[in-house]
Amino acid sequence: MRFDIDRYREILDTLTRNKSRSFLTGFGVFWGVFMLVSLLGGGQGLKELLQKNFEGFATNSAIIWAQPTTKPYAGFRKGRQWSMVYKDVERLKQQVPELEVVSPVLSHWGGSATFSDKKSSCSMKGLLPNYQEVEAPKMYYGRYLNDMDIKQNRKVCVIGKKVYKDLFPGGGDPCGKMICVDKIYYDVVGVDYSSGNMNINGRTEESVVVPLTLMQKAYNLGDSVHMICVTAKPGITMNSISDKMRSVVAHAHQIDPADEKGIMVFNTEVLFGMLDNLFNGVNFLILLVGIGTLLAGAIGVSNIMMVTVRERTTEIGIRRAIGATPRNILGQIITESVILTAVAGMSGILFSVIILEMLELGNTSDGIVTAHFQVKFWTAIGAIVLLSILGVLAGLAPAARAMSIKPVDAMRDE
Q1: Are residues 401 and 278 in the same domain?
Q2: Which of 47, 337, 377, 385 has its CA 20 to 30 A from that of 207?
Q3: What pairs with residue 392 in β-bridges?
Q4: 304 and 377 both lie in a single domain
Q5: What is the value of pTM for the model shown?
Q6: Separation of alpha carbons 36 and 350, rounded Å
Q7: What is the per-residue burial (b if ≥16 Cβ within 10 Å, else e) of 151-174?
Q8: C-alpha dihedral (94, 97, 100, 101), degrees to nearest 10
Q9: Distance of CA 275 to CAs 5, 59, 270, 271, 287, Å?
Q10: Which range, 50-59, 145-154, 282-291, 313-322, has the best average confidence (pLDDT)?
C-alpha cells in the first residue's frame, strides 16, 4: 500500500484538538492547586492571628485567684468571701517544688494617667520583675521593672502602648518623664508594646505597671494578692500539679481542697492544647479538600487525554506508519499530560500567592505585618512535585491506548 506523504502531512496540519475540553480540564487542576495553596496559606495566617492574642504568654502556666466558697468546710458555711495573701506565694514556692515561677498580681481599675495637658484612662497593675517569665513584655522604650525597684521602693512605672500614645502623641522616648496616676507621680522607665489579648486583669496596652510593694502601700492593700501566676518547670504539666497547688492554698485558708470553684486554677496548657488540636484538624481538612480537588483534576486530565487519543487515532496511525515507534507515541501523550497539568498547576500557585500577598498586606499594623499568609517554600516545591506525578499518572492510561493502536486499523478508522 503506497502512502501519499503530502496527504498525510496535510491531515496532520488540519487535525484540531478539543481546546474547550482541555481548557476545562486545565481549569480543574488550576482550581485544585489554587484551593490547596490558598487554604494552606490562609490557615497559617489565621493561626498566627489567633496566636497574636496569646503572644508572649507562657504556655506552661496557670493563674490562681479567690472566689466565694461553694462548699462548707471546718465549720464555715459556703459562700464565704476570702482573699489570698503574699504568704501564699511563699507557700507555693516551698510546698510545690515543681513550680519554676510564682508571681503575685495586684490590680486597680478605673484609673486615669495624666501628663501635662494629656490624659488617658488606664488600669494599674502591681507586679514583680519575675512576671516577665509569665507574660513576656515587648519593650519599645526603656526597660521593665527590676529587683532594685522593689528593694528601694522606687516610684517607677512601665506604660502600655495605648497609654503612651495618649500621653505622648508626638512620639519620642518618654523615659525619665513623670506621669500622674490617681494623684501619685511615677517616673516612666519603659514602654511595653505588647498587644496580646491574653491579659491578666486588664489589657497590657492600657496598663500602668508599678512595683507590687509600691502598689500595696499606695492603695492601702496590706499583704493581699489578687492573683498568683505560676509556670511549671520543663517536663512538668500543669494538670499534674493543679490539685496540689489548690490544696496548699486551701489548707492555709481553711477551704475544702475539693472546692474547685472556690479556688480557681486556670490552666493555660488546656487552652493552648485546644488551639493546637483545632489547627491540626483544620490542616487535615485543608489537605483532604485540596488533594481531593487535585485528584479530581488529574482524573479530568486523564479523561480528556483519552478523548484526545480517540480523536487523534488517524494521526497516531499515520505517525506509526511513517516510522514513529511506540516509545515516541508514549512520550508524546505523557508529555502533553504533564504540560497540561503543570501549566494549570503553576498558574494556580501563582494566582494563590498573589491573593495571599494581598491578604498579608491588608494585615499590617504600624508598618509591621501581623500575620503571614504565605506558604512555605518547600510546600510549593512539594505541590510542583505532586503535580508532575499526577501528570504522569494521568497520561499512562491514554498512552497505553495510543500504543495499542495498529497503523492499519488507524488508517481504516479514517
Answers
A1: yes
A2: 47
A3: none
A4: yes
A5: 0.67
A6: 12
A7: eeebebbbbbbbbbebbbeeeeeb
A8: -30
A9: 69, 11, 9, 6, 18
A10: 145-154
- Cα 99 from Cα 348, distance rounded (Å): 51
**Cell numbers for 238:** 500543669
| E strand or H helix at 266 | strand 263-267
Output the CA angle 213-215-220, nearest 5 degrees.
100
Return the SS3 of 281. helix
Q: Are residues 162 and 293 in the same domain?
A: no
Four-CA torsion 240, 243, 245, 251, nearest 10 degrees: -150
DSSP β-bridge partners for residue 157 = 188
The letter for the amino acid at 134 is V
d(C-alpha 309, C-alpha 303), whole Å = 10
Q: How does pLDDT run across 371-412, given as a tens digit for each residue?
A: 677 777 777 777 767 766 776 776 676 667 666 666 666 555
**Domain check: are 280 and 397 in the same one?**
yes
Residues 409 and 303 placed together within one structural domain of the fold: yes
Give residue-wise pLDDT tens across range 22-58: 565 667 677 777 777 777 777 777 777 776 766 667 7
Domain boundary among 192, 211, 230: 211
Domain tally, the chain: 2
Domain that holds residue 40: 5-54+273-413
Q: 3-state SS of 211-222?
A: EHHHHHHHCCCC
